[in-house]
Amino acid sequence: MIMDSQDNKKRFPFLRSFTFAIAGIITALRTERNMRFHAVSSIIVLLASYSFSISRIEWLLIIFTIGGMFALELINSAIERVVDLATLEYHPLAKQAKDLAAGAVFVYAILSVVIGVVIFLPYILGIFENGY
Q1: Mean pLDDT for the chain overall
Q2: What is the DSSP letter of 72?
Q3: In Å, how far are 11, 20, 25, 50, 64 from 16, measured between CA atoms?
Q4: Which end of the chain, N or C, is less packed with Cβ atoms under 10 Å?
Q5: CB 92: neighbour CB atoms within 10 A?
Q6: Which domains does the chain have, with CATH numbers?
Q7: Contact between residue 108 and residue 69 where contact means Cβ atoms under 8 Å apart
Q8: Residue 52: which residues within 8 A CB-CB, separation 6 or more?
Q9: Which of 73, 80, 89, 129 is catalytic?
């Protein structure tokens, strides 16, 4: 018996949901400047983490911080798209929705910087103290 594409859609709905999620991430990386900034920053932080041989707990904090930043940026972008879809005209509530979502990303970005300073500053200071 030959299965058509509809049978595959019914058999693998869970796997297909991953393709939609990945498409959303790729779209954000292609279209959102801030998402690209976060991606580049994440690569730098991951390389620094590896270079400094940070502890397991520090790795967990770094991974959660990076994941949270990506998640919030994706949510922010989705809110912006939905607001733009809902109205082409200026509306104070539309502006507030976009500003609130951007504010959430900003708060988390500040938290991420604080976490980065707490984790990496001792390693950086250690370099200067040991003369490397």
Answers
A1: 91
A2: H
A3: 10, 7, 15, 33, 25
A4: N
A5: 7
A6: 13-130 (1.10.287.3610)
A7: yes
A8: 120, 123
A9: 73
